[in-house]
Amino acid sequence: MEVKLVENPEWKRSAIIWFIFSAIQFWGAINYNSILFLIAGILAVASGIRFLTKMTSLIYFTLRNEVLTIHLRRLPLGDKRINYSDINKCEVLEKEILLHLKNGRIIKLRKDWISYDDLSKVKKELREHSITVS
């Protein structure tokens, strides 16, 4: 099961910030005749476009073969894989989903990044594997 990101106002705010940053970079490229400012401006525009168009097509996490794989994390360290057998319980809060692992660690997932339907499916999947969901 793949859980994709949902439309979120954060993506639009981030896109606006990237577009403002690109305008500043283009202004710097014109005033200082700098190719570095120009390249930074182009990259900023590309990032802004990505936030507007591609964020909802990205996969946040997958539940497959008794493994939960988190694809989008704050630090680009690669995917985080968690075996179902390592999960003690799942706690669904107002803004977060907390996965309490048997080793004492807590993995936080953003609840507002996934749809209600996907959340229901995730809860069902975890319960089917004898994981307590509260």
Keywords:
134 residues, alpha+beta, 4-stranded antiparallel β-sheet, 4-stranded mixed β-sheet, 3 helices, 8 strands
Rounded radius of gyration (Å):
19 Å
Described by strand count, sense and barrel closure, the largest sheet is: 4 strands, antiparallel
Secondary structure: number of strands: 8
Helical proportion, percent range: 40-55%
Arithmetic mean pLDDT = 90
Describe the structure in your own words.
The chain is α+β, with helices and mostly antiparallel strands. Helix content is 42%, strand content 27%. It has three helices and eight strands. The protein has a four-stranded antiparallel sheet, covered by helices on one side. A four-stranded mixed sheet has the order 7-6-5-8, with helices on one face. 14% of the residues are buried. The mean pLDDT is 90.
Offer a quick outline of the entry.
This protein is 42% helix and 27% strand.
Q: How are the SSEs ordered, and which strands pair?
A:
Blueprint: E1 2-4, H1 9-32, H2 35-53, E2 59-64, E3 67-70, E4 80-83, E5 87-92, E6 96-101, E7 106-110, H3 116-128, E8 132-133
Parallel strand pairs: 5-8
Antiparallel strand pairs: 1-2, 2-3, 3-4, 5-6, 6-7
Helix pairs in contact: 1-2
